[in-house]
Design goal:
Layout: H1 5-25, E1 37-41, H2 48-64, E2 68-72, H3 79-86, E3 94-98, E4 120-135, H4 143-152, E5 158-161, H5 167-178, E6 187-190, H6 194-203, E7 209-212, H7 217-221, E8 225-230, E9 256-263, H8 269-282, H9 286-293, E10 298-303, H10 304-325
Parallel strand pairs: 1-2, 1-3, 5-6
Antiparallel strand pairs: 3-9, 4-7, 4-8, 4-9, 4-10
Helix pairs in contact: 2-8, 2-9, 5-10
């Protein structure tokens, strides 16, 4: 007799969930938001994405008039956090702190259990360069010297490698490919985070590392690391005097670290536009800019078709880079 109860209960539960989802989607756009919003960060607390997301959440709470709660869901190359948002109702109340590592680079992962592009991209609000570093006591202390050593003996040149959907790895691949260094011969030493890579470079355990600019701040300040370049054309206040790759004549070495807002697939265009407007407004807030600067980022807004085109272009470039030099993952 009891065996029929479970399927019936599941059916009732699923029906209730479906009705709740439909009711949420039927909320008039003018009434949105009428309750708190969850902003999922697919990393642990304390990193650059988390800090940027918390700055945005606080400002968005004021802009939208409802609490915006940051929820950390790290793990599995950001798949856990992304999956939790993708499966949520497309009602604008569950959003993702998105970035290249959780979107465009994920498209290169062979084990990804979903289509990385199947989501609603709302807006990018922050962006910053990666930094290339060597040890403070290393015999090579500038960009050209590092390139010369790596090209002369790639078999004994060691670089930090995080794997998965790490933007730092693609910054490293750009450095190798852009300078004619045989990436297949370079030794990739595995680490779990950019912070670990920076500490290993400072200790002299590896020759070279890359990471978001803030990952090098403290060790560079104390002289344990030497920052030899920032990717792209943007300087960072906390790394004074460090040249950009554009200034060094390598404009193609432009891997950026960005943070934005996305949501489940199917969020109505009206809600997306309202959210994008709010994100654009907070990017002009001086307090937000100051908090972003503390982690090497600056306000950078991209929305709508321009954002989607930029992200798809990233994926195409990352794919071409991996195929060109035969190194990925």
């Amino acid at each position: 007799m009891r065996t029929g109860l479970l399927p019936r209960a599941v059916a009732v539960l699923l029906t209730g969930m479906l009705l709740a989802s439909c009711a949420a989607q039927d909320e008039p756009i003018g009434s949105y938001p009428s309750r708190s919003i969850d902003y999922v960060v697919p990393f642990s607390a304390g990193g650059s994405t988390d800090i940027a997301a918390r700055a945005a959440a606080e400002a968005l709470s004021d802009e939208l008039g409802v609490p915006v709660n940051v929820i950390n869901k790290p793990g599995a190359d950001q798949i856990i956090g992304v999956s939790s948002v993708r499966s949520a109702a497309p009602d604008g109340y569950t959003l993702l702190a998105d970035g290249a590592g959780s979107s465009s680079i994920q498209g290169l992962l062979p084990y990804l259990p979903y289509d990385w592009s199947d989501r609603t991209f709302v807006a990018k609000f922050a962006q910053g360069p990666h930094v290339y570093v060597v040890g403070g006591d290393a015999p090579f202390q500038d960009y050209d010297a590092v390139v010369a050593v790596a090209k002369a003996d790639p078999d004994h040149f060691t670089v930090g490698w995080i794997g998965g959907s790490s933007t730092s790895d693609y910054a490293t691949l750009q450095f190798l490919a852009g300078n004619g260094i045989d990436a297949a011969r370079v030794k990739r030493v595995p680490f779990r985070s950019s912070g670990e890579v920076m500490r290993a470079v400072a200790a002299g355990d590896i020759d070279f590392g890359a990471g978001g600019a803030s990952s090098a701040f403290s060790l560079h300040t104390t002289g344990k690391l030497t920052a030899i370049a920032l990717t792209g054309d943007t300087h960072v206040d906390k790394l004074p005097g460090v040249p950009t790759t554009v200034e060094l004549g390598h404009p193609d070495l432009d891997m950026q670290y960005w943070v934005g807002v996305s949501g489940p697939p199917g969020i109505p265009a009206g809600l997306t536009g309202k959210l994008a407007d709010a994100v654009g407004a907070i990017a002009e807030d001086p307090d937000v800019a100051a908090q972003l600067a503390a982690v090497g980022l600056s306000p950078t807004v991209r929305t709508g078709d321009a954002l989607r085109a930029e992200i798809h272009d990233e994926t195409n470039r990352f794919t071409a880079l991996s195929e060109r030099i035969g190194v990925a993952g």
